[in-house]
Design a protein that fits this description.
By secondary structure, this protein is an all-alpha fold. It folds into 2 domains: 3-82, no CATH class; 101-133. Helices cover 77% and strands 0% of the residues. The chain contains 5 helices and no strands. The chain has helices at 3-29, 31-41, 45-73, 76-82, 105-132. The longest helix has 29 residues, at 45-73. It is elongated and about 90 Å long.
Length: 133
């Protein structure tokens, strides 16, 4: 099998699937129209696949147009960074940062207090075990 043929087959499968999904959404929105459309096709699977492929290609084009429209409305720094259609990526920049620990004194005191309580409870449990045992 030729790679071009395989690519075309995969692309057709993708578009048929996209068309089927689009038709399913339409069937939910307007069941009578969808039933009429599919009853016109009947059991001619090749004709159905062709119809779904055309619908999928239209849906794909609409999706691409939508994404391009949204990205064209974005501010410039985001547009150049997020656009999947740009040819050259900007050079990565190195940023040096230094992490400094932040100590919450209230939290530290509370943890120390709870730790002391736990130690006292353990000691008390040990005393009770020895008295009962």
């Amino acid at each position: 099998m030729n790679t071009d043929t395989l690519t075309e087959l995969l692309q057709k499968g993708y578009r048929v699937t996209l068309g089927a999904a689009s038709s399913a959404v339409e069937a939910i929105q307007d069941p009578q129209r969808a039933a009429a459309d599919f009853s016109a096709v009947g059991t001619d699977w090749e004709r159905l696949a062709d119809k779904l492929e055309v619908r999928g290609a239209l849906t794909e084009k609409e999706a691409r147009d939508f994404v391009e429209g949204v990205t064209s409305q974005m501010p410039e720094p985001f547009r150049s960074a997020s656009s999947p259609f740009t040819q050259s990526a900007p050079e990565p920049k190195t940023v040096t940062t230094v992490a400094t620990p932040v100590v919450d004194t209230e939290l530290k005191k509370e943890v120390e207090s709870l730790t002391a309580e736990l130690i006292a409870m353990r000691e008390e449990i040990e005393v009770l075990k020895q008295n009962n045992g």
